[in-house]
Structure prediction request, 484 residues.
Amino acid sequence: MKLYVVGLGPGDQGDMTVRALGALAQSELIVGYEGYINLIRERFPGKEFFSTPMRQEVERCRKALEEAAGGKTVSMVCSGDPGIYGMAGLIYQLAMDYPPVAIQVIPGITAACSGAALLGAPLANDFAVISLSDQLTPWETIERRLRSAAAGDFCLALYNPASHSRPDTLRRACEILLETYPPNTPAGVVQNVGRDGESYLVLSLEQLRELPADMLTTVFVGNSTTRTVAGRLVTPRGYRQA
Amino acid sequence: MKLYVVGLGPGDQGDMTVRALGALAQSELIVGYEGYINLIRERFPGKEFFSTPMRQEVERCRKALEEAAGGKTVSMVCSGDPGIYGMAGLIYQLAMDYPPVAIQVIPGITAACSGAALLGAPLANDFAVISLSDQLTPWETIERRLRSAAAGDFCLALYNPASHSRPDTLRRACEILLETYPPNTPAGVVQNVGRDGESYLVLSLEQLRELPADMLTTVFVGNSTTRTVAGRLVTPRGYRQA
Prediction:
């Protein structure tokens, strides 16, 4: 009757919380996208696993809710944080059909936080988080949000900066930001945080526009106060005029 | 020569990551605001602690850097995530004066994530994070960011919604959002996440305007798609028109 919606963080188990590990240990069944299940399968031998490929989110959530309604303790796992582009919202929407299930969301380290930690402190002042994927949000809405964020001088974390169907997404997003932000605005990219091949790159917004990106990349763009300090991206908060 | 900048998450040790706990265990000296040091002192007997009251951020960071430069393994602790209104940026700015120190930021669960998990899934689509404290950011900038975020139909997480010097901060912020968002826009408030007295409240933006707030509160405001589902705040992502 219990369904945990568990954030796995960026990928390395060291970035999971004690509570997330405890929920998985207590669960009889662990459900998730196959790429995430593969990250944790070895650590939890003897558990039952159920995974589906990408884009079968509704089926995956229904399976988790059905099994929990049937009496099992279930964890639905998400990379990063389940509340940020994760499954927490869909679980709550579908849960109306499974009234006895008690749902508990266990937060995880989202890519904005894990990527920022690698790059320095790019989000240390007010920031906006925007997904550049137009699978679930119309592209016009994404453009409007990019323009609004630039109008507010927000720092930015951009999720899903490239897709197979739309290879020029990041370029287009940078062009919109460049309507407001100067070309030398500091920006950064992280790849494979917490996994093999972890890397980060600090560059300018103008250089970012020319960069190829894949789905494991998270992109950061500074605001008018962001600077590079010893190769790191830092947005000051006013404690010191450095 | 090693300085960890460690996110403690919302307060309960269950919300700390494995890596954060490991960094504290390895450290000889743990530095931080006294309120945060008190959260972890008992768990790490035998460690040296150094704490300062609020607003002595520069002194605190210099102490951590000095001791690390002197050869100690040091952790500077922050509540939530050190990169989000935490000490990571200031540490990098000051670190230029202490070149031998190797800095590693260990991310933590920020209030946007821990509060959202309690409320439902209010940030499951694009969102902005704004601090309402005018200690380090001019109030005009905060107003501009609130208006820009509303123009972009962002969901919002608002940090530091009240201060002693400015008791009407949250009311004023709500009035600005109400220029764009309808009065019945779903909103939510969390208090003392991960601590004694943890609570959450789902209400309308209009009701939020009338609410007293204190510094341990984080405030959430939905966008045009956010709704309440079985008493929780949910921003759908388009998987399903529920």
Notes: Residues 57-69 of chain B form the longest helix (13 residues).
